[in-house]
Give the backbone structure.
Amino acid sequence: MENTFEPKIVAFVCNWCTYAGADLTGTSRIKYATNVRIVRFPCTGRIDYNLLLKAFAQGADGVIVSGCHPNDCHYTSGNFHARRRWIVFRQMMEYMGFDMSRVKFSWVSAAEGAKWADIVNTTVQEIRDLGPSKEYAEMSRLGVV
Amino acid sequence: MQVLQQKAKELLESGKVQVVIGYGEGTGERVRPLFVRTAEEVSKLVWDDRCRQNLAVYLNKPEIKKMGMPALIATPVVVHTVIQLIAEHQLKVDGVLTLVVENGSVKELFDTTSLEAYAESHPVIFPPFVKQEIKTIAEMSLHERFKFWQDEFSRCIKCYACRSACPLCYCERCITDNNQPQWISSASHAQGNFEWHVNRAMHLAGRCIQCGSCTIACPVGIPIGLLTIEASRIVGTEFGQQPGLKCDAVPAMSSFKVEDTETFIK
């Protein structure tokens, strides 16, 4: 039976690199999956891990977090702080049984329009194979939400 | 016990300290925190294997600060806590007199050198059952771990005793008290419980000195210490920093190295 599940992906991106890169994907007329909703931040350093949890709580099946390459941060060091945060967050979540393969991290610069399309297409396909996100659905079922 | 009571008496009578924070007899067979302010009360101080609660949590409470210069009767892990609080600028080095019991006598730790030397020679050692639990959880599959923690969190009543007992949870406005916007639901249901414990572990990453007070305090027996210990273990492995050892340490999660490496960012 064909897999007709269309995942909802939320992308938390930085304004200066990935958002501009995604814009380039569009102006270059590169077609890519339409499952992604992009949320723009000034910098990946601003992205709180609680926002990722909120995305899943609101029904997202997958999340993309993307920003400037190391040493290219518009605010010099925001992405370095973010990198440390993600290193700890991923392992902490896996320890608590949350499937972090649903969260994709990437560095996409303002010139990498094709890379953005590739990231989105790969993520959508992987999440489609994983199916709808289960953890928050399970938690909502368990208690009064 | 006698040596401690004697030392407390000396310190109070000389006016060197205004309050000695230690342990006294509690209800049942337990001990409870004791704040001795006069030399006559020192006989109430006890010192035995029951004395495990981390008393450094009181150093940041306004009611205790008002009492004046404190002396703190410290187990080894409490010394780690004092160092970590100094490193995070919550405590001045000369703001507390730390008392440790060694070889039947009481030693005063009053400066960075003595504190750090003691901490280094007394590293945190987990009891065997904690090591076993950590190993068991690490060997579970992802799904088993999710089920394990959901079962544990199902008992969480959001009393925040873990937060109150932790000396490193000193924020005057905790993220969970925010309701405009509400980041973490305060209701005692699965989703809010999960988010609370994730946040607590993340906020204590690299800061948890592994005293176990949170686990002792939890009224429903959730092994909270296992979460915060894991968070600090991750920071120790990835960034090579252990909390509670150096008074001038830069917090691991507030800093970065350009050479930090990971394999999951494409």
Remarks:
- The longest helix of chain A spans residues 78-95.
- Chain A has five helices and four strands.
- Chain A has one domain: 9-139.
- Chain A touches chain B at residues 49-50, 53, 57, 70-71, 77, 80-81, 83-99, 104-107, 119, 135-136, 138-140, 142-145 (CB under 8 Å).
